[in-house]
Amino acid sequence: MGRMFRYLHPSTRIIGIEKEEKAYKVAKALFPDAKIIRDDLINHILPFKSVDVSLINPPFSMRLEKRDSGLCNARWGARGPGSSVESHIAELEIAIRASDYFVAVVLPTTFFTNETTRTFEKWVKENAIEVLRIDLPADAHAGAFWATTLLIYDTRTNHRYAIREPYHWKVNKLDELNDLIPEWQNTEYYQKYMRGFLEDTASYPKPDVVLKPSTAIELPKVTTPKIPLTDNSTIRICLNPSNTCLHLKTHDLLTSLKVLEYKDLLGKRY
């Protein structure tokens, strides 16, 4: 990500969220004036059109869980509806919704051939227009061997039909980008819609986005419920010296439901 940031204009105001401790310390050292916090991205859905540009390199296929995440592409998870989403899907959705002009993102090349992401890819096309795609070599990132693709999306609704097909290149070495960038800058789309970008943002600067680390959520203490038993309803506790758990057996449906409720309330303690 630092290699992407080095091309930014000196007046650029940078905000960022980093969860991994070492990466967070490196980012703070490299960009001391940037507003970078250590937290999980899913805790920070930025306001709509609150930034000009998003530069993101999300981790791939990590499962994020948060109750009522507020993300359009989250699915049913362990914490209920809209609580489970893959990391790269969450980050790209947040970036597209928050960016007023462009999103630059590095994604796995398999993203475009994976049947499980078809619905999300449709959502992306409805909310942004792909203007540039560059397939990178598998060894582009140090310490990894994974085919990735660099994309630029235009998130301005008034330019939705400015380009029919994205410019698509494939490079075998990163050095080839030095030749592609001037070629890209000479395209009609770049000259018409991207050249005056800095002037526009300088004339109409956005207010600062304030990021604060989320506070830890305290889980309620587990209380042991009392199960009222009537008539001949009983619970048999079968103890086995070789087992580390209890097997609760019941003789009727009502007692079974009460036992199930009891186990659910105990949670991990059971």
Question: Could you characterize what this model shows?
Answer:
The protein is of the alpha/beta class. It folds into two domains: 2-203, Rossmann fold; 220-270, no CATH class. It is built from eight helices and twelve strands. The chain has helices spanning 2-5, 21-30, 87-98, 118-127, 177-185, 188-194, 197-203, 253-266, and strands at residues 15-18, 35-38, 51-56, 63-65, 75-77, 80-86, 99-108, 129-135, 148-154, 167-170, 236-238, 247-249. A five-stranded mixed beta sheet has the order 3-7-9-8-10. Strands 4-6-5 form a three-stranded antiparallel beta sheet. A two-stranded parallel sheet has the order 1-2. Helix 2 links the parallel strand 1 and strand 2 (35-38). The longest helix has 14 residues, at 253-266. It is elongated. The mean pLDDT is 78. InterPro entries: SAM-dependent_MTases_sf (IPR029063). This is DNA methylase adenine-specific domain-containing protein.
Write the layout of secondary structure elements.
Elements: H1 2-5, E1 15-18, H2 21-30, E2 35-38, E3 51-56, E4 63-65, E5 75-77, E6 80-86, H3 87-98, E7 99-108, H4 118-127, E8 129-135, E9 148-154, E10 167-170, H5 177-185, H6 188-194, H7 197-203, E11 236-238, E12 247-249, H8 253-266
Parallel strand pairs: 1-2, 3-7, 8-10
Antiparallel strand pairs: 4-6, 5-6, 7-9, 8-9, 11-12
Q: Can I get a quick summary?
A:
The chain has helices at 2-5, 21-30, 87-98, 118-127, 177-185, 188-194, 197-203, 253-266, and strands at residues 15-18, 35-38, 51-56, 63-65, 75-77, 80-86, 99-108, 129-135, 148-154, 167-170, 236-238, 247-249.
